[in-house]
Amino acid sequence: MSWLNLNQSLNSLKGQITNFATEVLSEGVSEESGDNAIGSDERYKELEERCRQQELEIQELRKKEEFLVQQNDVSIFNLLFTYWVENYEGTIRRQFT
Questions:
Q1: Is the dihedral of CA 34, 39, 45, 48 positive or negative?
Q2: Which contacts (CB < 8 Å, 24+ apart) does range 85-88 have?
Q3: How far apart are CA 8 and CA 23, in angstroms?
Q4: Element (DSSP H or E) covering residue 33
Q5: Which member of 3, 22, 36, 64 has the lowest number of beta carbons within 10 Å of its beta carbon?
Q6: Would you give the DSSP letter of residue 97?
Q7: How many angstroms separate the CA atoms of 66 and 81, rounded?
């Protein structure tokens, strides 16, 4: 019977240690999660600002792309016009003179 009492005492002690460890660990986690929440909020704001800056950069790049496409179209037109003048203008003049 003394073994039974000793076994119950050990189980009780084991339960108390388990409860204490659980409490200590959960307090540490809640404190850390509070710090992480602040860190997460700052990180969120940082990422939000970074996204905003990238959106502005994308808008600027789209404007530059549009400008370059227009310049390219003008250049192609000028090349075609120059080619036409060099190759066909004399032919057309001879036909009408």
A1: negative
A2: none
A3: 22
A4: helix 2-84
A5: 3
A6: -
A7: 22
Strands (E), 50-97: none
Tell me how far apart the alpha carbons of residues 64 and 60 are, in angstroms, rounded to a whole number.
6
* Per-residue model confidence (pLDDT) at position 1: 46
Q: What is the DSSP letter of 1?
A: -
Residue pLDDT, tens place only, 65-96: 999 999 999 999 999 988 888 888 766 666 66
The single-letter code of the amino acid at 60 is E
CA distance 41 to 51: 15
Q: How far from 46 is each of 35, 43, 56, 59, 83, CA to CA, in Å?
A: 16, 5, 16, 20, 54
Residue with tokens 């549009």: 66
pTM reported for the whole predicted model: 0.46
Q: List the one residue out of 17, 20, 22, 21 whose CA is nearest residue 9.
A: 17
Place of tokens 């959960």: 26
